[in-house]
């Protein structure tokens, strides 16, 4: 029955038609005084009222559009639970994965500055540990041998012409020739000590030895014995792994919560239960277009070499957001277009309200607009309530109780 018709019937505004007495001819009913109509303001006041309230209390209770009435005992059986909108200190935990990488500031490339053939290869496999100053390979270079001979010849000429030659310009030329050959040797990475030994020995050294620049591990080896190598070719890539980097992937929506200097707890897949503490050193300014993540770098000491490049880790970053107005996460219905929360407008009356939300933190959502502190919101069975509310709106029953 239509609600308004039921109310009018209850008020006696709809009267049954009189039936003719049997055996009598039907005559047109005698004109009578029209029934008193309810004043327009009284009818207007009936809009949006609960018929049950009218019958029970003799007065109406206004229900907001889209709201529904559920008695508390029925709500309990349906599993409806409530939470309170309140200010609380939000602690957001970002959980992600990371991987161990070499410290880029501790990587060196070994390349010859002169071309030649590899005579001896001392560091002969990838992953080999090396010490500072250790010989890596010996290189025979005809050009290097010729320059050494030129330097020795210029030195002898300088000494002889400087003592007995009547032509001073020849002595000066010999000195300049020796200085030019010496500079060339230095540019080819021949050390001052090697040049002094060359002067003392008086004969050229046929092989150039390349040494490790520091203690480390050979990450890449691109040379073999007997191979000809060009000047500038990358022969070895050596890394000092006593300190390593941990690179964590941070999703785009989590970037506002992270910054350099924050501490993180690191768990290793290879050592169950072990926890390390690291401090963020740098947040990279670009995102990976495929994963939509940014890289956050941590620096970890690795004195015993337990942390190895390409090792995976779990990373937890605890971020304090401070006091925020928040609502339980289960109270929000997200349609993709808008976010709805059902608020207890009165006892047994649940009203849908659109809200604007901020950060998400450990089961709570920050409320930016739409709710006030102290309001009670539905946190359980809200999808059932939402379905009932939508059905009432579709049937045109918004604002009435059936």
Concise overview:
Helices cover 24% and strands 38% of the residues. It is built from eight helices and 21 strands.
**Structural class estimated from helices and strands:** alpha+beta
Rounded Rg: 45 Å
Order of H and E elements: HHHEHEEEEEEHHHEEEEEEEEEEEEEEH
User: For the terminal residues, how far apart are their CA atoms?
Assistant: 9 Å
Question: Strands of the largest sheet, in order across it?
Answer: 3-12-15-14-13-16
Main CATH class of the largest domain? Mainly Beta
Question: Judging from the principal axes of the Cα atoms, what is the shape?
Answer: rod-shaped
Helix content: 10-25%
| CATH superfamily heading of the largest domain | RNA polymerase II/Efflux pump adaptor protein, barrel-sandwich hybrid domain
Seen as an oligomer or otherwise, the chain set is: single chain
Strand content: 35-45%
Please tag this protein with its features.
alpha+beta, conserved putative lor/sdh protein from methanococcus maripaludis s2 fold, Elongation Factor Tu (Ef-tu), domain 3, 4 domains, six-stranded antiparallel barrel, rod-shaped, disordered C terminus
Mind sketching the topology for me?
Elements: H1 3-10, H2 40-46, H3 51-57, E1 68-69, H4 72-78, E2 81-84, E3 86-102, E4 107-110, E5 116-121, E6 129-130, E7 135-140, H5 142-164, H6 168-187, H7 192-201, E8 207-211, E9 216-221, E10 228-229, E11 236-239, E12 243-251, E13 263-268, E14 271-288, E15 293-301, E16 312-328, E17 333-334, E18 339-346, E19 349-361, E20 364-369, E21 376-380, H8 382-394
Helix pairs in contact: 5-6
């Amino acid at each position: 029955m239509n609600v308004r018709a039921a109310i009018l019937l209850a008020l006696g505004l709809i009267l049954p038609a009189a039936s003719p007495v049997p055996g009598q001819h039907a005559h047109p009913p005698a004109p009578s005084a029209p029934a008193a109509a309810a004043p327009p303001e009284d009818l207007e006041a009936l809009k949006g009222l609960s018929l049950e309230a009218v019958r029970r209390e003799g007065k109406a209770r206004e229900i907001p559009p889209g709201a529904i009435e559920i008695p508390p005992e029925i709500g309990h059986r349906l599993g409806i639970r409530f939470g309170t909108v309140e200010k609380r200190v939000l602690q957001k935990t970002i959980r992600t994965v990371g991987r161990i990488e070499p410290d880029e500031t501790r990587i060196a490339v070994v390349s010859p500055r002169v071309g030649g053939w590899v005579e001896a290869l001392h560091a002969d496999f990838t992953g080999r540990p090396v010490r500072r100053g250790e010989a890596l390979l010996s290189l025979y270079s005809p050009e290097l041998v010729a320059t050494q001979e030129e330097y020795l010849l210029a030195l002898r000429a300088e000494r002889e012409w400087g003592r007995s030659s009547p032509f001073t310009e020849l002595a000066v030329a010999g000195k300049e020739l020796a200085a030019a050959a010496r500079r060339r040797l230095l540019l080819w990475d021949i050390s001052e000590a090697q040049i002094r030994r060359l002067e003392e020995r008086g004969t050229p050294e046929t092989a150039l030895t390349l040494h490790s620049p520091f203690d480390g591990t050979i990450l890449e080896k691109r040379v073999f014995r007997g191979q000809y190598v060009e000047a500038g070719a990358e022969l070895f890539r050596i890394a000092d792994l006593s300190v390593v980097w941990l690179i964590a992937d941070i999703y785009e929506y989590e970037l506002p919560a992270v910054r350099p200097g924050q501490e993180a707890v690191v768990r290793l897949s290879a050592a169950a239960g072990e926890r390390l503490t690291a401090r963020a050193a740098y947040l990279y300014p670009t995102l990976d277009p495929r994963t939509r993540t940014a890289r956050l770098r941590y620096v970890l000491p690795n004195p015993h070499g337990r942390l190895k490049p390409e090792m995976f880790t779990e990373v937890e970053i605890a971020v304090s957001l401070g006091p925020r107005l928040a609502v339980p996460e289960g109270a929000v219905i997200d349609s993709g277009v808008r976010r709805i929360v059902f608020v207890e407008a009165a006892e047994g009356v649940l009203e849908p309200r659109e809200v604007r939300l901020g950060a998400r933190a450990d089961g709570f959502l920050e409320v930016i607009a739409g709710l006030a502190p102290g309001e009670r919101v539905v946190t359980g069975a809200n999808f059932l309530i939402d379905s009932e509310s939508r059905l009432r709106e579709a049937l045109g029953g918004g604002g009435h109780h059936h």
